[in-house]
């Protein structure tokens, strides 16, 4: 593959780089097994993530996507290797880094606006300032009309948009998204992908997005990190030279889609170009 880029383990760590939000060098992670011995689930990961980048972690179940995300978010620590955030060793989860999960995690007893305002108030804002900010971000995701409803009165897609508004309202530096749209129907997923791209272009937030959907990764990612299992590792880092927003039928989109299908050995020998 021409565009394949692997961060070599020899690539020097730059302790002063402010543009690189994350630098991982030779990072491995093992977990204990029920039988006792440690099992290596992530082997020798090398990855740079720039400020404002939209990075998709892509791979089959069990290849360690969530483990990479959890390491970056500092929910867990590496077994070996180095992980720097803005050139500094990570010591604790950063309050400017927020996570959106597949299950949106809204408080069912709070209204939409109170869900979105919650994190802002937790940062020390007054109730009225927090609600003002919540309205701003509900408008951004097109949900100002349902501000006084409760989560159970919304569709799955709307609930996930509330979760996005709640994450944005704390004006994060980094958003981690762990398969946030995988429980939604295809049409809602397409709409939310467009919304996410629009918000990312508007807010310039660094986004780390975990997915096992090749189309989703190509559509969203400026950079797609292709992972493989046993043990979990990065196979390649593929920059997507695609103008955004793009059409899912564009030749550039189809080219990268096919390259990734090939990387996962999902293209048949007899398949003509772009016939996937
Ligand atoms: N806390 C843990 N303790 C033990 N094993 C773990 C732990 N967390 C993850 N693992 C194992 O590490 C491997 C990678 O898990 P991870 O969740 O990172 O994969 P994934 O690529 O995100 O998978 P999926 O797409 O299914 O969510 C799996 O085999 C998993 O069972």
TrEMBL record:
Domain ABC transporter span(s) in chain numbering: 22-254
Pfam families listed in its UniProt record: ABC_tran
SMART domains given in the database record: AAA
InterPro entries: AAA+_ATPase (IPR003593), ABC_transporter-like_ATP-bd (IPR003439), ABC_transporter-like_CS (IPR017871), ABC_transporter_ATP-bind (IPR050166), P-loop_NTPase (IPR027417)
Molecular function terms from GO: ATP binding; ATP hydrolysis activity
UniProt keywords, alphabetically: ATP-binding, Nucleotide-binding, Transport
PANTHER family, per database record: ALIPHATIC SULFONATES IMPORT ATP-BINDING PROTEIN SSUB, TAURINE IMPORT ATP-BINDING PROTEIN-RELATED
Protein name as it appears in the record: NitT/TauT family transport system ATP-binding protein
Originating organism: Heliophilum fasciatum
Lineage: Bacteria, Bacillati, Bacillota, Clostridia, Eubacteriales
């Amino acid at each position: 593959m021409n565009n394949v880029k692997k961060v070599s383990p020899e690539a020097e760590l730059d302790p002063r780089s402010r543009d690189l939000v994350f630098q991982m060098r030779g990072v491995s992670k093992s977990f204990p097994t029920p039988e006792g011995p440690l099992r290596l689930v992530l082997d020798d990961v090398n990855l740079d993530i720039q400020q404002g980048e939209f990075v998709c972690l892509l791979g089959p179940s069990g290849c360690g996507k969530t483990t990479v995300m959890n390491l970056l978010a500092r929910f867990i620590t590496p077994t070996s290797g180095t992980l720097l955030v803005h050139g500094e060793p990570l010591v604790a989860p950063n309050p400017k880094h927020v996570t959106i999960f597949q299950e949106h995690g809204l408080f069912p007893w709070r209204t939409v606006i109170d869900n979105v305002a919650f994190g802002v108030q937790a940062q020390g804002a007054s109730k009225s300032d927090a609600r003002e900010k919540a309205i701003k971000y509900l408008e951004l995701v097109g949900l100002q009309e349902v501000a006084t409803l409760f989560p159970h009165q919304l569709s799955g897609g709307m609930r996930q948009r509330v979760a996005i508004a709640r994450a944005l309202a704390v004006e994060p530096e980094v958003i981690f998204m762990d398969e946030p749209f995988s429980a939604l129907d295809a049409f809602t997923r397409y709409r939310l992908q467009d919304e996410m791209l629009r918000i990312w272009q508007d807010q310039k937030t660094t986004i780390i997005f975990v997915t096992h959907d090749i189309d989703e990764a190509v559509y969203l990612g400026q950079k797609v990190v292709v992972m493989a299992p046993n043990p979990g590792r990065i196979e390649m880092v593929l920059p997507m030279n695609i103008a955004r927003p793009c059409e899912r039928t564009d030749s550039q989109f189809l080219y990268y889609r096919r390259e990734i299908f090939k990387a996962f050995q999902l293209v048949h020998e007899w398949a003509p170009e772009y016939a996937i």
